[in-house]
Input
Amino acid sequence: MVLFSLVQKKTSIVVFSDLDATLLDHASYSHEAARPALRLLEREKIPIILCSSKTAAEIERLRDSLRLHHPFISENGGAIFIPRGYFPFSFMPHRETPRYLVIELGTSYSKLREVLGCLQHSYPGAIQGFGDMAVEEVARLTNLSLEDACLAKQREYDEPFLLGNEELASEIAKRVNALGLQVTKGGRFHHLMGGNDKGRAVSILTSLFRRQQPDLVTIGIGDSLNDLAMLMAVDYPVLVQKPDGSYDPAVRLPNLILAPFPGPDGFRASLVELVPLLIRQEFS
Output
């Protein structure tokens, strides 16, 4: 693994991580292989910011199980959820909940469903969205439990969909772009979004952290094209392997660090090497 960039003075670190096929195993959703890295981050008091296509409800459940208390980014950058009182300064959120101050970037789910309905009318039988699926079907397609599939359907800013004919992907993307929306491809589904941007969300949250820690260094870890904007927004971008051992050919950055394993094994291997180097300031 080759490291890039030189840092000459002591820094603080924040890690941004994708979930599916990165921190979580693609098939089992287990994070067991990543535990040594998670313990390292906890010991060094390094925040890990979960940044995923998952819903806030899904991320909250995982975040609570991992005993994380940091902000998170839901639905491909649709919104940033910041725990109340997390930062010792004020900022202007778009909305508030009992637990969080929320910065919203994405288009409302109702609008996305309206657009998807128009696409389904134009391409009969070719598109199936999450909103069209029963909980049981979502569970079958994602290998989630029924309870987790219910959480996955609690969408606010992103509509995953299956495309029966991949040759239509480019044509559909052009139509969606003309409406000011976009389509991206994740590990299992295409995603219809508007304004969602993992990179922008990471940049906004980084700017908040840097109000306290001007010398902040950021690490980002992902596995697919869906993570490219996030990886472009950090100082140290890390790409883990796909389950078959390959790297997503669409992710190309001059300073990209290639993790030696897929999923949580790659997450662990990259962080247990990179984080101590940053802490010791021994770079090569």
In short: The CA atoms of residues 206 and 218 lie 8 Å apart.
